[in-house]
């Protein structure tokens, strides 16, 4: 691997053909770090590097990975599991798909390092059901890795065993929530669990369990190669390293962009070719659909977790969705809330009823039958949807709802008053 | 007393048993086994639910819960060509709604329906995780991005042959 | 042991106690739907959200365990506003069925709306349509999926208590629905309990459907007589509005919380076993069998019956037989023993069950289908098949002149053919009972008695636990309580017993037999939907 090109850690594999094949991956230095860890390092030492790296969870929660590892009890007498969250359901996010399709061995190497450090011998990769291509690639990669003794029994001549199983999901965004993922993996509906207890202590089959996003694990080989401090230095004070930003929507070049945590949103949009068709920027969702929307005035924010939180949004999954001046924000919000209504598991009342209700009100507004009370009512409903539920789906619905209504209030008022959009919408023009 | 399994033939049962062996608790195999059965038969019938529930020693009502909770499981056979078109934000921003309208018009059906000859089906789905090629659809098993009206027409006429 | 403060009251509690449990100890009620002390924690209704200091978000009281120094506020403005909104969320898709819903008057949504809601509806949208309205899901329960608030109590009940797993929640989001697997029925022996625990009218009782509005019901503490378990019940009656009852006074039986016996539950057999209280009753004293039957006054009958007994006793005490029943109350059996054994010195006094043994399970159901076999045992009466065989032999030998039965139907219970022929050998059959049967048809004297619903008394369950039941109804027609009948009879026979009431008899009974002092008190009244 070529770590000195600091802009292309994970992404160095994306443009190489056949990097998903073991022979190619090995030629690029693949599995060298896993070998180093297993043969030369003590598990504590691996853990120390991860802590120093300030690696944050890149699936959406942004929890410090080193801290998460420290929550797992090693002396419970029960096996410790690792489940890899490859459910990638947060709209606007597609970077894990790239990793699994184009660099599955990188993920496996990261899994191996983590498992070694934590004394884990069984790993389940929970992949969303629609990702048939990535699932195929992962299964092939595992077969290759087992054949080459990187996985399975007595790995690399040591006494360490590790089994990795790819588990196909079946179409439920909520299964990206870690405890819903565990429920689904145990053969039930994806109903998030009451917390405490937390998965680190009581997880899969009642055993201590680590749950990590695909991308988070994929950075582990790089952290071991150059050290945790180095990785931390690539990012900001509190968010170490790089991350894969998924940029989509009204940009010239939608795609995955691996950048430092310290990049600004403005810079990231420019790297993706800027707003398309020469139009002006109107709004951006910076961290997946659950993140509060930002206006064009707010794009000088640094794209790390804490900076985004400070301005009232979130780093989330790194899914950046760009909206140009011709976007109708009422329609965008309706599309958003309809998603949450569709994906709510239905377990608890504020989310189950609230998301559906909000979507219906917005539909009515879009159909030209909005009423004066509607906007304030939406805000009031939104305020009690969040902070009252079993999991964060409703919080994820609340943040866009309240931010759109706050920052684009005039558009909503207009729609209610006039029964049509303030914005002259133009068809995206899906014709050649 | 052995009952003849209509759905879980001995071959499928072998595969199912291998799948179960990968998990530390057999019930975890329910999603992979449902996928196996659906890939073989095209949908999940009550018969299938009964046999799988018996194999995994699960209450039968739990099977119904699972099949109705997860959107990828179908109770009725699907069309030969299933258009699962994304309707979430990035695809909406890049013309997804026009693609959906075009499909409705071209196929003469509403989302959730099949054409009367069983050739084409239309479903609206949420984010497929392929926003960089918006508007994207999953057509049968493959992701097809950068959809345009022309591309849709080509696919329809191509599949009709 | 952690110390926790709720609304300013501090208390020390066991480790592991949840906030909602502690609040109950302090007499503070936290509203809830999905929480039920007899089921696992679901935490999905969100009604019990309370403020806990040092926690930024509100916490559900049903799940959070008390930690030392925890300070909880259950009535702050923030909590009240949240409750109002949670209630609103639950009502968003709930149909306006109150006028046609049996749950009205004991409905969780109605009650909490009055207590915590009182807002004007803001819903201008179409409510989500669910698939099943007024659909029977078995013999006993009616399902209405629109009314369901998805608290999952029924699911947990059928998983954890009966372990039959009939219920599931299908689909997701606001299209979620309660249901059974297509083609399956709810037919376990405890199916009626799901109606009790459903906080709303989604699961209603088919037997009670549209019978009577619950605010017209009078509720009396009673004990089930279906088997020897002695489940605590509430007998719910309506006598003021007979047009609602269609000739019945007992409208329904409901289980009553009793930690020592049945907790929150009762079986279906017990639950629906009440129609006999209003049907097939004998309401007038009668003398003469078959064609010669005629009604009589109590005075007449008492005189005639006492003459018969006195005559038979004089001729030969061996010719009088008494069949006591394990359906009689402790007090009735005690007085019967006093009269027949101690005063009249009769020897052929046997315990004979009206019902055959039935099924038994690990939950509540006992194979002995009588409430008071143990009470009879304490008084020294055991059922013995040999004794009964001897009795039948003696009847055949014309050695029994007078037979006194307490409600049993020998014709159906003794398959010896021809039992009716055998009974015809007895010159004088005295039937003391509440409901007519083939034996009462053959009796020469019918002393109509009050049922347990119309009496005060106690039963002793199979574990020796004594429980009192209260009188829910006046005796029907001319029927009299067992005690009254026995005292009257004693008086006619020259035995000077005063007009004891059931309380007097109970006291004497307990003084004479220590075992009757093992009384289980009724548990404190609990909110109707925590039970």
Automatic annotation (TrEMBL), chain A:
It comes from the Bacteria. It is an enzyme of class 7 (translocase). Residues 330-375 form the NADH-ubiquinone oxidoreductase 51kDa subunit iron-sulphur binding domain. It catalyses: a quinone + NADH + 5 H(+)(in) = a quinol + NAD(+) + 4 H(+)(out). InterPro entries: NADH-UbQ_OxRdtase_51kDa_CS, NADH-UbQ_OxRdtase_suF, Nuo51_FMN-bd, Nuo51_FMN-bd_sf, Nuop51_4Fe4S-bd, Nuop51_4Fe4S-bd_sf, SLBB_dom. Its cofactor is [4Fe-4S] cluster; FMN. SMART domains: NADH_4Fe-4S. Pfam families: Complex1_51K, NADH_4Fe-4S, SLBB_2. Its EC number is 7.1.1.-. One of its GO terms (molecular function) is metal ion binding. Keywords: 4Fe-4S, Flavoprotein, FMN, Iron, Iron-sulfur, Metal-binding, NAD, Oxidoreductase, Quinone, Translocase. SUPFAM superfamilies: Nqo1 FMN-binding domain-like, Nqo1 middle domain-like, Nqo1C-terminal domain-like. Belongs to the complex I 51 kDa subunit family. NDH-1 shuttles electrons from NADH, via FMN and iron-sulfur (Fe-S) centers, to quinones in the respiratory chain. This is NADH-quinone oxidoreductase subunit F.
From TrEMBL, chain B:
Binds 1 [2Fe-2S] cluster. Pfam families: 2Fe-2S_thioredx. CDD domains: TRX_Fd_NuoE (cd03064). Its cofactor is [2Fe-2S] cluster. Gene3D superfamilies: Glutaredoxin, NADH-quinone oxidoreductase subunit E. [2Fe-2S] cluster binds at residues 86, 91, 127, 131. It comes from the Bacteria. The keyword Secreted does not apply. SUPFAM superfamilies: Thioredoxin-like. One of its GO terms (molecular function) is NADH dehydrogenase activity. InterPro entries: NuoE-like, NuoE_dom, NuoE_N, Thioredoxin-like_sf. Keywords: 2Fe-2S, Iron, Iron-sulfur, Metal-binding. Belongs to the complex I 24 kDa subunit family. This is NAD(P)H-dependent oxidoreductase subunit E.
């Amino acid at each position: 691997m070529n770590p000195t090109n600091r802009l292309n850690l994970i992404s160095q594999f994306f443009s190489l053909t056949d990097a998903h094949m073991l022979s190619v991956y090995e030629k690029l230095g693949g599995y060298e770090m896993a070998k180093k860890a297993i043969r030369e390092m003590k598990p504590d030492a691996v853990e120390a590097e991860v802590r120093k790296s300030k690696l944050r969870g890149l699936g959406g929660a942004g929890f410090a990975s080193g801290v998460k590892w420290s929550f797992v009890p090693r002396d419970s007498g029960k096996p410790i599991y690792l489940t890899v969250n490859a459910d990638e359901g947060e709209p606007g996010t597609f970077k894990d798909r790239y990793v699994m399709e184009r660099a599955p061995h990188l993920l496996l190497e990261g899994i191996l390092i983590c498992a070694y450090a934590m004394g884990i011998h069984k790993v389940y990769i929970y992949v969303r059901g629609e990702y048939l291509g990535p699932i195929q690639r992962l299964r092939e990669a595992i077969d290759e890795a087992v054949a080459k003794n990187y996985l399975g029994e007595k790995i690399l001549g040591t006494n360490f065993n590790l089994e990795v199983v790819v588990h196909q999901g079946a179409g439920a965004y909520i299964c990206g929530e870690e405890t819903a993922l565990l429920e689904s993996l145990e053969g039930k509906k994806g109903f998030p669990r009451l917390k405490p207890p937390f998965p680190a202590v009581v997880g899969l089959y009642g055993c201590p369990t680590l749950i990590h996003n695909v991308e988070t694990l994929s950075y582990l080989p790089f952290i071991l190669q150059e050290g945790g401090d180095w990785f931390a230095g690539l990012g900001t004070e509190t968010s170490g390293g790089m991350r894969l930003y998924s940029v989509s929507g009204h940009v010239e070049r939608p795609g995955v962009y691996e950048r430092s945590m310290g990049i600004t949103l403005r810079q990231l949009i420019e790297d993706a070719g800027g707003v398309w068709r020469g139009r002006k920027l109107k709004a951006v969702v910076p961290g997946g659909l659950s993140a509060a929307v930002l206006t064009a005035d707010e794009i000088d924010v640094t794209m790390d977790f804490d900076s985004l939180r400070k301005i009232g949004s979130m780093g989330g999954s790194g899914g950046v969705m760009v909206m140009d001046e011709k976007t109708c924000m009422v329609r965008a919000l309706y599309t958003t809330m309809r998603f949450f209504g569709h994906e709510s598991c239905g377990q608890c009342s504020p989310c189950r009823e609230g998301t559906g209700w909000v979507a219906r009100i917005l539909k009515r507004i879009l159909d030209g039958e909005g009423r004066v009370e509607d906007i304030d009512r939406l805000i009031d409903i939104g305020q009690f949807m969040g902070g009252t539920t079993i999991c964060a789906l409703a919080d994820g619905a609340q943040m866009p709802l309240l931010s759109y209504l706050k920052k684009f209030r005039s558009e909503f008022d207009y729609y209610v008053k006039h029964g049509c959009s303030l914005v002259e919408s133009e068809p995206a023009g899906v014709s050649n | 007393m052995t009952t003849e399994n209509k759905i879980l033939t001995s071959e499928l049962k072998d595969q199912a048993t291998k799948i179960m062996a990968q998990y530390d608790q057999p019930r975890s195999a329910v999603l992979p086994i449902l996928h196996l059965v659906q890939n073989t038969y095209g949908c999940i019938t009550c018969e299938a639910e009964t046999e799988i529930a018996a194999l995994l020693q699960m209450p039968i009502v739990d099977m119904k819960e699972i099949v109705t909770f997860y959107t990828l499981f179908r109770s009725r056979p699907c069309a030969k060509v299933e258009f699962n078109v994304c309707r979430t934000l990035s695809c909406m921003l890049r013309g997804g709604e026009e693609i959906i309208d075009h499909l409705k018009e071209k196929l003469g059906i509403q989302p959730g329906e099949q054409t009367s000859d069983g050739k084409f089906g239309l479903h609206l789905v949420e984010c497929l995780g392929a926003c960089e090629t918006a508007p994207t659809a999953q057509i049968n098993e493959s992701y097809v991005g950068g959809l345009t009206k022309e591309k849709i027409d080509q696919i329809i006429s191509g599949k009709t042959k | 042991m952690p110390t926790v403060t709720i609304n300013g009251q501090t208390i020390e509690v066991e480790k592991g106690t949840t906030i909602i449990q502690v609040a109950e100890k302090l007499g503070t009620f936290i509203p809830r739907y999905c929480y039920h002390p007899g089921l696992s924690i679901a935490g999905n209704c969100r009604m019990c959200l309370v403020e806990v200091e040092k926690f930024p978000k509100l916490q559900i009281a049903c799940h959070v365990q008390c930690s030392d120094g925890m300070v909880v506020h259950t009535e702050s403005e923030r909590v009240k506003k949240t409750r109002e909104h949670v209630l609103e969320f639950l009502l968003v898709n709930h149909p306006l069925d109150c006028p046609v819903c049996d749950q009205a008057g004991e409905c969780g949504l109605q009650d909490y709306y009055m207590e915590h809601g009182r807002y004007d509806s803001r819903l201008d949208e179409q409510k989500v349509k669910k698939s099943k309205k007024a659909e029977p899901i078995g013999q006993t329960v009616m399902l209405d999926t629109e009314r369901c608030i998805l608290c999952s109590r029924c699911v947990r009940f059928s998983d954890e208590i009966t372990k039959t797993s009939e219920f599931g929640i299908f689909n997701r989001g606001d299209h979620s629905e309660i249901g059974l697997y297509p083609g399956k029925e709810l037919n376990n022996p405890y199916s009626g309990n799901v109606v009790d625990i459903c906080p709303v009218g989604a699961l209603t009782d088919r037997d009670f459907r549209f019978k009577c509005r619950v605010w017209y019901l009078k509720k009396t503490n009673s004990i089930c007589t279906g088997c020897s378990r002695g489940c605590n019940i509430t007998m719910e009656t309506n006598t003021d509005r007979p047009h609602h009852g269609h000739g019945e006074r007992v409208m329904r039986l409901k289980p009553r919380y009793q930690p020592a016996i049945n907790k929150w539950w009762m079986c279906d057999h017990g639950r629906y076993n009440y129609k006999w209280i209003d049907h097939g009753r004998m309401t007038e004293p009668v003398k003469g069998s078959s064609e010669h039957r005629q009604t009589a006054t109590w005075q007449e009958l008492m005189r005639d019956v006492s003459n018969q007994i006195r005559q038979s006793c004089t001729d030969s005490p061996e010719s009088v037989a008494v069949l006591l029943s394990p359906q009689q109350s402790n007090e009735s059996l005690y007085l019967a023993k006093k009269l027949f054994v101690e005063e009249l010195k009769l020897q052929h006094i046997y315990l004979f069950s009206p019902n055959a043994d039935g099924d038994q399970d690990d939950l509540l159901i006992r194979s002995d289908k009588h409430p008071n076999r143990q009470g009879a045992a304490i008084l020294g009466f055991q059922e013995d098949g040999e004794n009964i065989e001897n009795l039948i032999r003696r009847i055949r030998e014309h050695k029994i002149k007078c037979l006194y039965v307490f409600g049993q139907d020998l014709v159906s219970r003794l398959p010896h053919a021809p039992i009716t022929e055998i009974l015809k050998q007895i010159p004088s059959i005295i039937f003391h009972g509440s409901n007519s049967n083939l034996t009462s048809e053959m009796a020469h004297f019918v002393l109509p008695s009050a049922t347990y619903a119309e009496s005060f008394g106690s039963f002793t369950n199979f574990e020796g636990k004594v429980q009192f039941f209260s009188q829910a109804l006046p005796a029907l027609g001319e029927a009299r309580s067992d005690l009254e009948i026995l005292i009257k009879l004693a008086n006619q026979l020259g035995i000077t017993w005063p007009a004891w009431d059931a309380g007097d008899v109970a006291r004497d009974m307990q003084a004479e037999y220590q075992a009757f002092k093992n009384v289980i008190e009724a548990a404190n009244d609990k909110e109707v939907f925590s039970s």
